[in-house]
Amino acid sequence: MKNSLFAFFASFALLSLMGCPAPGNKCDIHFEAVEPFSLGQGMTACMNDADAFSVRFDSVSGDSRCPVGVQCIWAGRADVVLTLSHGTTSKTVTLASGDLGQGGTGEADFERYHIKLENVEPAKKESGPVAQKDYKVVLSVSM
Description:
Layout: H1 2-18, E1 29-31, E2 37-40, E3 44-47, E4 53-63, E5 77-86, E6 89-98, E7 107-110, E8 113-121, E9 136-142
Parallel strand pairs: 1-3
Antiparallel strand pairs: 2-9, 3-4, 4-5, 5-6, 7-8, 8-9
């Protein structure tokens, strides 16, 4: 009887834990394939599909864009670090927006998904750098 009771509670606890989402899979927003969506720094977006694809906007690793109202010789670019996840697989990628003439890319493929960086917001201002917490990216994902 004692073993049966223990087995019952152990099974119940295991089943309860299996129903909980993994701590790293928190979804701040949900999106549809092909539709552009905006994502704030540190946020995670999950695709509205049964395959559990998500993208997290980790940081802007570099922002050399020309500030608004300033005449620059080079337009510059912003490099964005994203973590892409599908099921138990994940990959960190860096996508760029702006002048890609010196390298970088604005698109990445991960498993069957194609991720495109549409824009980095806000525009850089002459008054100083943008704080990490203020960045937003516009992304689109297709299959």
